[in-house]
Design brief:
The protein is of the alpha/beta class. The protein has one domain: Alpha-Beta Barrel (TIM Barrel), CATH 3.20.20.150. It contains eleven helices and eight strands. Helix 4 crosses helix 6 and helix 8 packs parallel to helix 9.
Length: 280
Amino acid sequence: MKLGVHSATFVKNWSEDITPYIKLCRDAGYSSVEVSLLGQNEKSAIEIGKLSKDLDINITCTTGLSKDEDITSNNQNIRKRGKDKLIEAINLTSLMGSKILSGVIHTAWGISDNYGKDKSLKYKNSSNTLIGLTDILEDKDIKLGIEPLNRYETDFINTVDEGLELCSMINHSHIGLLLDVYHMNIEEKDMCASILKANHNIFHFHVAENDRGIPGSGELNFNRIFETLNTINYSGNVTLEMFIQSNQETSKDLFTWRNIENNPFDAIQKSYEYLKKFIK
């Protein structure tokens, strides 16, 4: 397993230059940095890819679809915009030298106008669109990680079981799951049992404390979580996804209305000191 940090820990707006933060993460001991593709373009992707090679640090990528890019929609034009956005994201991921793109790539981020209804149709539309991406994923050797989100952030795919159902409909080696302990702590009866069930379908993994702050400072049992990851021989990235800064341009998108931690760099250092004992 490799420890990483999500760029949203630092950025104050999505278009901010993240290269200084990549260096800070490397200096703190991390092996990877997760880049939100919001605000990125081909030029910045090439620069990030070059820097990652120079610093010998891995890049993982994440993105989310808007309502007018919702691939669960019954509107063919909206689904096409979503597919085009995902193709663009896959190309940016490739330019950065990354092999994983994860996040809200299976639906629009947020609660839909259907409020949880018509899920069977959403499964169908989402799976058919993602199946249409498998050739480019194979060609660029990139894997997609579908992220189940808690009920307050989406009305489609809240649990590991629901994520596995969507994966089974797609049935492709390059499409699996991103699991996040913050969301699982809300939605799963037993998150470690769910990790065991997901097993080889887990392509990526996010950690933070139950308040999305520094791991080890709250209620989550990280000893058991990492024991379970070791049981399934998970060897991928474990990315620290702390959304901790309020009163920034990004805060409204990340639902951060107060400072969860006061200093982002101090928070990633303390997190590294706690998490490194679990990495073998």
